[in-house]
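User: I'm preparing a small set of examples for a lab meeting where we compare how different chains pack in three dimensions. I only have the primary sequence for this one, and I'd like the structure in token form so I can line it up with the others. Please keep the answer compact; I'll paste it straight into my notes.
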Amino acid sequence: MSYALYHATRKNLSGVKASILNDWMDNENTTSHRHEKIFDSEKDAKTFLGTLDGIFMILYAVSMFFWGWLGDRTNPRNVVILGMIGSGLTLFLFGTLPYWLLFYSTAYYVFIYILFGIFQGCGWPNEVTIMANWFPKTNRGFIMGLWAACQPLGNIIGAILVSIVLPLGYQYTFAFNSLLIILGAIALFMFIESKPSSAGYNYEELSHDESETPEVLPTTRRRLSSASQPITMLEAILLPNVLAYCLCNACLKLVNYAFFFWLPYYLTSKYGWAESESNQLATWYDIGGIVGSVIGGIISDRLGYRSPVIVVMLIASLGTLSVYNGIGASKVLHVLFMTILGITVSGPYNLIVGTISVDLGSQPALAGNSKAMSTVSGLIDGTGSAGSAIGQFLVPFIQTSFDWQYVFYMFIIMNGLSILCLAKRFYQDCCLLISPTFPSLVPRNIEERERLLHHE
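Assistant: Understood. Below is the structure token output for the 456-residue chain.
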């Protein structure tokens, strides 16, 4: 629920873009002007909204590297709580206070959204660490896939809350979401510990085979104890497969967050549907994200490999994007294809930043180092956020200069590039999957098996 609230607050602006644009253009009441226009044209206002999204993603990406680094050196729960309180305060300062005080300033909006992006970066890398501390490796794909569904769940919660509160005025949607995430921070402080030992459990997870004898275990404990030192960003990015997934996520998150930021506005501007209705329809993309995250995690657990599942889903997304680009105004078709897009775009993204971040942050190359998880997770999601930031500048530019269909062409290209980033890993994992059919590919010993599994 904590990270769902992070996403609900992040969803707020995308759900009220048409309303806030009307307010900035002073289009809400033509007989009694509340204030002077702050933009001369709707194109300028839309460009500024895209700029805000891009600024948010840049600061979110940069700050995530720092917050992940800090979480490995302090209590990650406290970093999460700091981010929740800061997010609530800055959201209120952005969307509610200017409306009440009739204070409209582009410089002010940019400054507050910079702070909002910085505080939002506290959440993901440190919550991944807490989850990894509490749950063992068994069924990790299912557990982390289920938990990573908190992102689309938060989008759904945010969209529903916005659609319910919006008739009172868009300013109240910001106030309500701000209150919710601050209450969530209080609940997190009261009920959650960052690891089992902090909650009084005598629990120690060791990275060893069940076949290890009691004589070997003391050695394993000494090795893990000496290895549990925080790692640098350079050390993290040089770990096996981390760079490939960073680049893949940079392309994929651009597409996922373009839907996140622009889907309700796209439905309203292209089809003329009411903003509250567009927000409700857009939740089907997030419902698909939950389904894709959970099913992808289960299948990858059964299969024993993650990349084949992710690549197949991404390939399916290419055809779905092509079809969705021209389906017309049928709401039934929109529901169907938004759900499929959620499964094939949001689902793989959730697996990468959730399950795979934990896999890579606890791989054998780290020798059981428990203080690397936040750094690796922050690196993967932070790199993705950097790619997404570029996308938020491109979407309004391409849409206003050409048309929405060219925005979808960009999505298809980016998802194609994300597949290419995983091509080598996909090929290696497929070779291991079919190795019983081709005896020459069967590892001859433990050392070769580890080399093949982790591609060092």
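A couple of notes for your slides: Residues 205-227, 439-450 have pLDDT under 50 and may be disordered. DSSP finds 20 helices and no strands in the chain.

User: Perfect, thanks.
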